[in-house]
Amino acid sequence: MTTPRTVPVVETGRYSPISDVATERTIIGRVSSIDVLRGIVVILMAIDHVRVYSGVPAGGPDPGLFFTRWITNFVAPVFVFLAGTGAYFYGVKAGDKRDLARFLVTRGLLLVLLELTLIRVSWTFNFDYGTYLLAGVIWVIGWSLVALAALSFLPTKAVGAFGLAVIFLHNLLPGGGSEHWAVKLLYSGGGVQLGANGPTLAVLYVLIPWVGVMAAGYAFGTLYEMEPARRRTLLLRIGGAAVLLFVALRFADVYGDGNRWRSANGQGAWPATRAFLNTSKYPASLLFLLMTLGPAILLLPALERAKNSVTRVLEIFGRVPMFYYLLHIPLIHALACVVSLVRTGSVSPWLFANHPLWPPEQPVGYRWSLALLYMVWVVTIALLYPACRWYSRMKTERPKRWMKYI
Question: Where are any strands of DSSP class E within 194-266?
């Protein structure tokens, strides 16, 4: 007689036998701690996107400005990493590499299409496709899913090794300098002209190193087939090692990031601290990824044990991240129009420019205070919660096939 395999019940730390005894496949359900972590980062994401329309700069010497931007640095790495983990869970459930690959390619291309259409209009509230297209985080998640479809046919350890190699070694590549469109799409970013008279694709998120982050997240999913105590130990070790490596490499200031910090020594504690934490996001450096993914992984064991009203709210947001993403940009943009109307009596034309990358200089006196920025952020989250709760319930109680893509 075949002995059924077991999987951890993350919420309680107990084990339960799977029902699929015939195939002996391990079935992984939803992992609440991962949903909560994802919920945290999508809520933080809204801070930066409110900032886009507030006219507040992306960081600066003032601590309030700096940390308003810095705290949102955790969003993209965790978002992409957990997309890989979710892909692994889907593959385990499907039990067929071909089914997984088809899903990843289909969903990936859908995300790219959404980035170039619906999301682009949400950012700009204009249809000036002749001059501006955006390759943002959803773009790179989409193409990374397509790449992962091919990688998924390899052993999971090989996928993880590939991901780590990209993360740790990509800073050896020469940065910038090339105007070739392929180099810009893969690594350096910038504007890519589409045809002689076509629009410019503003490449913010490049494939390297994000495809490596997703591949590492895919292999990370294997930890959730382990006994809970062992998994929590490994999470603490992996997260702690990433944080310590970040501190060591950053202190040495010789590899892993193009932004050197030691020149700020002697200028005072705050300038040195700010320089130390100011790692490169575009393209994401090794130190940027260690600085953000390490603490996120360290947080997961605590989130496995945390069960309260706050984590339940966060979990709802984390269960529907793409639905949240598609709603939150047009909502924030609309709220910015309302703020402009209240403050000045009219909606500023600046709000219909090519955000978030290429808007013109903001009107004199337009910039919001940080207090107003955070007030609009709170309103945004409050307005999104009922819709996300409804969609989460729909996915659970009346799931449709298309819902797995959004």
Answer: 200-203
